[in-house]
Each structure stands twice: as structure tokens, then as C-alpha cells.
Structure of Antitoxin:
Amino acid sequence: MGSKTISLREETYRRLDRAKHENESFSDVVDRLLVDDDDPLRELIGFVDEDELDAVKRKSSSFRRDFAGRFDEEAETGDSNGSSR
């Protein structure tokens, strides 16, 4: 199988390197990321580092707890328009 040499910006190289799994070549990474499917978020896989992912998970959990608390409060008071606040 033949190969081609391409130039990448430093940031692009770092993003690909972060997306690269153990024992995976850069060609494998590009092939995996170029999979054509209907999921618009697929292109983001591998481009978020662990710290960013943890921060998103924490914010999501906090939002869900806050939302659930507000929903429970409305159920207890019977107030659906928030006038008890």
C-alpha cells in the first residue's frame, strides 16, 4: 500500500495525537474520524481532553441536580410558575 506525506499545523497534529488510541497509526486515526455517519457529534470524539470532559460532566451533573430540585419543589408546592420563590 502506498503512502502520502501531508503537512499539518501544530495544533492539528496535537489534536490528532490526543485522538490516537494506543497501537493506532495516524492513518488509522484519520480513517476512524472520517467515518461517514449521521451523528453530527462524531467529529468531536477524541478532540476533548480528559480535564475538559470532566468539567463538562460536573456541570451537567450540577445542572441536572438543580433542575430536579426545582421540579421536586414545584411538585411539593403545587406551583408550576415559580411564584413561591
Remarks:
- The chain has a mean pLDDT of 80.
- The CA atoms of residues 56 and 62 lie 10 Å apart.
- The radius of gyration is 22 Å.
